[in-house]
Amino acid sequence: MTNTYRFPAEWEPQSAVLIAWPHAGTDWADRLEQVEETYIALVEAITRFQPAIVCVSDDDVQAYARARLASARIDMERVHFIDVPYDDTWLRDSGPITLDGAGGHRLLDFRFTGWGGKFEASQDDRLVEHLHADGVFGDAERSTIDFALEGGAIDTDGRGTLLTTWQCLHERHPDASREELTARLAEWLQQDRVLWLDHGYLEGDDTDAHVDTLARFAAVDAIVYQGCDDPSDSHYAELQAMGRELAALRTTDGAPYRLFELPWAPPVIDNGRRLAASYANFLIVNGAVLMPAYGQDDAGRRVDQAAADVLSQAFPGREIVQVPCRPLIWQNGSLHCVTMQLPAGAVGTLT
């Protein structure tokens, strides 16, 4: 009997969230202390709702991470460590894209090229292979696909509709037409249709406009997106154009999507460099939405709360948990970028 696979939406039941602990051998070395605090807060938030699988590069890193998390009074019964080599901690893009089916799960192991060769990624490109060999995913099958695709570049409603951006996929595959890319994504990811956004970007983003920093499904008929209401801001024209694109999209029933516009975060500048602070980079877990918070003063915290209020409307019945992510955007990513959810049943027995 042929197993029919499906790409589940992020809001469907999960078994765990996969992350990688930052250490001195990663690009976090210069700001390790600050980013560790974010990871502690992130693991605390995840383990309130489900297990966290934490990749560590060696026994010393594991011992250190275990001590830091335990000292924060995190439920260590829900924390599982896996020794595996990695270049950096952006597991949204180097981790597995998991399909589920009646007979089990399939891990799609696409090429990870360090966002088009911008960064060294040879170890990250083998992350799924190593985790699969270690039994993290039980008896799930692993399919290697010689095609560059990052998890942050795509979002699905779990019913056969994929949302992505032309800028990113065209940058990775400049010789492929939109029709060719649509057909490939639909086949590999088991999608009926692909919705392309031609507008939207964030300064400081080196992913070439990943959709998970711009617009995300909240339900089969709802999309949450990053707005910008400041005409003097360099992002205004592009994000306004993206908002119009989203308003023109239709569900499979022919209805317009319910749209939830996230507030624009106050600019975060580091040594003259604008950092990519997006509230759209949230993570959905069992019963909650973990959202990035960036505010350091009262005004910034008010915008964080305004974003939380929008997410409460978009995800009724789920708790909204703010996770301080200002240290993460120093490397141009945020909360969703450093995590990868694993669907229910996709994880093997962990110790």
Low-confidence regions = none
Helical percent range? Answer: 25-40%
In CATH terms, the superfamily is L-arginine/glycine Amidinotransferase, Chain A
Instruction: Indicate the structural class.
Output: alpha/beta
Number of domains: 1
Q: Counting H and I runs of at least 4 residues, what is the number of helices?
A: 9
End-to-end distance: 33 Å
What's the Cα radius of gyration?
Answer: 19 Å
Query: Strand fraction band?
Result: 25-35%
Strand count, sense and barrel status of the largest sheet are: 4 strands, mixed
Topology order in helix (H) and strand (E) letters: EEHEHEHEEHHEEEHHEEEHEEEEEHEE
Tell me the strand order in the biggest sheet. 1-5-6-7
Mean pLDDT: 96
Write down the CATH topology. Answer: L-arginine/glycine Amidinotransferase, Chain A
Gross morphology is: globular
The tally of strands reads 19
The CATH architecture: 5-stranded Propeller
Tell me what the structure shows.
The chain is α/β, with parallel strands linked by helices. The chain has a single domain, classed as L-arginine/glycine Amidinotransferase, Chain A (5-stranded Propeller), CATH 3.75.10. 26% of the residues lie in helices and 26% in strands. Strands 1-5-6-7 form a four-stranded mixed beta sheet, with helices on one face. It has a four-stranded mixed beta sheet with strand order 4-3-2-19. A three-stranded mixed beta sheet has the order 8-9-10, sandwiched between helices. A hairpin with a 4-residue loop joins β8 and β9. The chain is globular. It starts with a strand and ends in an 8-residue tail after the last strand. 48% of the residues are buried. The model has no long low-confidence stretch (mean pLDDT 96).
